[in-house]
Write a structure and sequence with these properties.
The chain contains 19 helices and nine strands. It is an alpha/beta fold. Strands 6-7-8-5-9 form a five-stranded parallel β-sheet, sandwiched between helices. Strands 1-2-3-4 form a four-stranded mixed β-sheet. Helix 15 packs antiparallel against helix 16. The chain binds adenosine-5'-diphosphate (ADP) and magnesium ion (MG).
Length: about 500
């Protein structure tokens, strides 16, 4: 591309306008989309009434020109009435290694691009990137990797990941792979754990790290197993499986998220297995996530499970109270909203299922505080999160209550249903019955059955006995309250 075009006459003024346009686009489409598609745009020149914008690859050029072309033109016109047309071309420099899989220096070429002249009304906001049909690869031989990758979430970086006991091992492994991909012993890297514990976050963090680095850039393809399957099916339909295979096999790092999705999808599994083997043989890095360990992924082919377990297997454990507090603190600080420690503690106790829910609750509090300009308090928390908290209340089971209470009083769990009547055992058992009545919707007979088939009158007696004791004995009352709070979390 001839970036030295003599037509760049009014660059200073134009450059200012361009900066404003970029800013507006960024605000309109959001950070993720902007980083993925638009950040690499550079201003190439102005010729008559036509502005030229460059992008480093044909793929990006086509994408931007079809999806954002009209919007670009409207924005330019609002900035500069002289401009009537915007041309998006391939060329120019890459200001920063940004989008996934575009870090391989793509062959730069001068290709005439479609002009954007049609006076169609601009969309209110640019549409979100849709899945790309596999056959768009056919015409796109120069930059085969660019549409392999799903957009990365800019928040999902190593810096934004809070490390604690439950995830430190997985974090360390992810860091290691990001530093030195394809190291023996770390290939494949298999991350597993329950929903919302940070698998996707860590995968994106690896991808950001690898694509953002300036020396020895590598091409990374990250996608969900679901997307992998749809791409594969689309390739079969359009008879372009060869391209599909070639494209996949040309990356340096392949990341497949939520592999459990492939259970029962035998053909796609088979395809993944071959790609996997090919890449590993070529010394390329594979990163996979799933909700279970390789050996527990029943329904996945045996040979695939075996291969998946050959490298490093790291699990993300359920969060601890401490980790939840740290995460909340970090996210509150990031949001710039002052959240009292009491509220953070309350949330960390209450929402234990996964980080996504915890984050959602905090976001809602923050949004509420910003909207109404009111400080966050325990009261507003109860109010604003009413529905979320209620949903969490319902989850307490009698078994959990028995377990927590037994732990608290250091008695055996079996004593909850045993016939022993010693006070050291009987009192905790009564506390557990009381809490079961308070925290669950079970009837007295149902509760009795869970405590060694006791009669409902025994449960009734336990409830009134504990109530009475709580009124008389402050320490005992605090104890029971503490247990209740723990269980409600
Ligand atoms: P998964 O893929 O395991 O279901 P995600 O990676 O999507 O979970 O995480 C869910 C949400 O929780 C994301 O917004 C992520 O940023 C956040 N999250 C999870 N673990 C952490 C952590 N340790 N530190 C900061 N944020 C986290
Ligand atoms: Mg995920």
């Amino acid at each position: 591309m001839t970036t030295t075009e003599p037509e760049i006459v009014e660059m200073p003024q134009i450059a200012v306008q361009w900066t404003r346009i970029r800013g507006r686009l960024q605000a309109e489409v959001g950070e993720v989309e902007y980083r993925t598609w638009l950040r690499q745009m550079t201003l190439a020149g102005l010729e008559g009434d036509e502005i030229t914008v460059n992008l480093p690859t044909r793929f990006l050029r086509d994408w931007v020109s079809t999806r954002y072309g009209d919007r670009l033109r409207t924005l330019w016109q609002s900035e500069n009435a002289d401009i009537r047309r915007v041309e998006v071309r391939v060329g120019g420099s890459m200001p920063a290694p940004v989008a996934l899989a575009q870090t391989h220096a793509a062959p730069r070429e001068e290709v005439p691009a479609p002009r954007i002249e049609a006076a169609r009304p601009a969309p209110a906001s640019a549409p979100a990137p849709a899945p790309i049909a596999a056959n768009s690869w056919n015409e796109e031989r120069v930059e085969p990797r660019s549409d392999l990758a799903a957009p990365l979430d800019p928040r999902f970086t190593f810096e934004g990941f809070v490390v604690g006991k439950p995830n430190e091992f997985a974090y360390a492994c992810a860091r290691r792979v990001a530093e030195r991909p394809s190291s023996p012993g770390f290939n494949p890297l298999f991350l597993y754990g329950g929903v919302g514990l940070g698998k996707t976050h860590l995968m994106h963090a690896i991808a950001w790290e690898l694509t953002d680095r300036t020396t020895a850039p590598v091409s990374v393809a990250y996608m969900s197993a679901e997307k992998f399957m749809y791409r594969f099916i689309a390739a079969i339909r359009s008879q372009s499986t060869m391209e599909f295979k070639e494209n996949l096999r040309s990356v340096d790092v392949l990341m497949i998220d939520d592999l459990q999705f492939l259970i029962g999808k035998d053909n796609t599994q088979e395809e993944f297995f071959h790609t996997f083997n090919y890449l590993v043989e070529q010394g390329k890095q594979i990163v996979v996530s799933a909700d279970k360990s390789p050996s527990d992924l029943n329904g996945l082919e045996h040979r695939l499970r075996t291969r998946l377990g050959c490298g490093m297997v790291a699990d993300l454990h359920s969060t601890t109270y401490e980790l939840r507090i740290s995460i909340l603190e970090a996210k509150a600080a990031r949001a710039g909203v002052d959240v009292p420690v009491k509220v953070l503690e309350f949330l960390a106790h209450k929402i234990t299922s996964n980080v996504r829910e915890l984050e959602g609750a905090l976001n809602r509090l923050v949004a509420h505080a910003n909207l109404f300009g009111r400080p966050v308090t325990l009261e507003t928390t109860h109010e604003v999160l009413h529905d979320i908290l209620k949903a969490h209340d319902r989850r307490v089971t009698i078994e959990e209550i028995q377990k927590k209470v037994a732990e608290h009083y250091s008695i055996r769990l079996t004593d909850m249903s045993s016939a022993r009547r010693a006070r050291a055992v009987a009192r905790p058992r009564q506390v557990a019955m009381y809490l079961a009545k308070q925290l669950t919707s079970r009837s007295l007979p149902e509760i009795g059955r869970k405590f060694g088939n006791r009669d409902h009158t025994t449960v009734m007696h336990a409830v009134s006995r504990v109530t009475e004791l709580m009124e008389r004995d402050g320490t005992f009352a605090e104890d029971v309250e503490l247990l209740r709070r723990l269980l409600e979390s």
